[in-house]
Amino acid sequence: MRFHLKPVTAASALALALGLMAAPSSALAADKDEEKAAPVTDYEPIVSQRQLSGTFGGKRVDYTARVAETVLKDDDGKPKAAIVTTSYVAKGNDRSRPVTFLFNGGPGSASLWLQLGAFGPKRVETPGDATDDGAPPYPIVDNPDSILDVTDLVFIDPVGTGFSHAIGDTEAKEYYGMSQDAKSVAEVIRKWLTENGRWNSPKYLGGESYGTTRSALVASELESGWNDVALNGVILISAILDFPTVWGGGEDGNEIVYPMYVPSMAVAAAYHGKREGGSPARIAEEARQFALGPYMTALLKGQDLPADEHARIRAELSRITGLSEDFLERANLRVTPDRFYKELLRDRGLVVGRFDARYTGKDYDNAGAVPDNDPSGYGIDGAYVTAANDWLRRSLGFDTERDYVPLGGVTEWDWRPDGEGSVAPYLNVAPRLSRAMRENSDLRVFVGQGWYDFATPFFGAEYSMNRPGFPKERMTWKYYDAGHMMYLRNEDRTKLSQDVRAFITAR
To answer: How do residues 396-448 score in pLDDT, each as one tens digit?
Structure first.
């Protein structure tokens, strides 16, 4: 999970795609303090642990909940960073039992969303009908939909997120990049496997949003070379692997982005009664065929598009998306997502959400081209941040004076997949994942997408993983009647749990 507004550069476009927020002053102050700090030659990691029990998937499980800093060191043994993991391990630490490593996205998001929303043994209760979470107290309740009955769970907060931080004179930004981040997370996984004696356990990676990008990169890190950590599966929640599918539009000249969003616009319009109804699956398929065929063809013709064809496309695009022909004509048949959020329900004085288009909100006025903010962001953040601080500090006893950074503490992200000296003329990490699958005959991939997600649209995810190189017979696709965080809807949290549980046990 992650929040935000309009792109003007490639980097800020990605911030829009994945919700990179302005850094809180507390997080920036912490970074400045670390930059001024003297070198540290030794560091005592903070660890807390509790023995708990609960019922998950109908099965009673006794487990150890452990919040711990994993210290990363340089080649000379000097501590550089402390990455916090929250692990839930069934009693007995069974070596044959699967273990799943999970993280959220951003980049710059802590793992509170997946941990306290979907898969952890506790969850924060928020309205399941796409309405605002209001003010505390927020109920923190048992989560029978946790998958702890079939796998141990390790939630990872990369440097700059949650309580994780750089140490001494190390600058946190050393970890702020695609390659740097993936290497550090892979190192944490290796250390956890060694410390817990779990090298021969079935292993899964799971990520949401940019966490799916990280999953592809970490899988590549773990499975390349001879020091191989073979994986059994990768779980992608709201996937974003091929970034031009969500980047840009407008004057930057990227035309592929427009067809990628048409199916999402179609299902959102139907949800709000702006076009004919039907199941999201049926509406999405009709929109896919239009987007891939007549619409894409029309865009590729550019200014050579004949007037009669232009009129036909405009009429059909209006029917499919619920937007008026007048608006589509003024937009030159090209509608960016942020304009859609504002325009779809303008006649009702409402905007729709980006992370979840089921959510609606009211702007300062109704005249703007884009929303003031995302109602599906500010509709949930208070509950999750409160729950994370309460659960980790009070219930699990993690004793630190550091601020908990849910999102936004990460700055200056390096968008080169191979780090320093590399280039990414077309930023797409899907080939990393397809290669990992080709080189590991047992590696399977699960993809879960919400129909109403505009941050990582389902059609873009499909396009990125329908290219040559992916063993389609080892891929599982599931769809949900909610948005980016499909587990916000109670029925879909249960469905996601059942789907992922089936994926893990199917090995």
So the answer is: 999 999 999 999 888 889 999 888 778 778 999 999 999 999 999 999 999 99
Fold of 10-244+380-505: Rossmann fold (3.40.50)
The DSSP-derived string for 400-452 is --SPPB-B----S-B--TT-TT---SS-B-HHHHHHHHHT-TT-EEEEEEETT
**What is the rounded distance in angstroms from the CA atom of residue 103 to the CA atom of residue 394?**
22
My answer on whether omega of the bond before 137 falls inside 30° of 0, hence cis, is yes
Q: How many CA atoms lie within 13 A of 49 on its CB side?
A: 7
By C-alpha distance, which of 131, 143, 224, 148 is closest to 183?
Answer: 224
Q: Is the pTM of this model over 0.85?
A: yes
How do the domains of the chain map onto residue ranges? 10-244+380-505, 253-376
Closest listed residue to residue 371, CA positions, set 473, 154, 379, 483 = 379
CA atoms lying within 13 Å on the CB side of residue 455: 34
Which is nearest to 2 in space by CA: 25, 28, 20? 20
Helix (H) or strand (E) segment spanning residue 499: helix 490-505
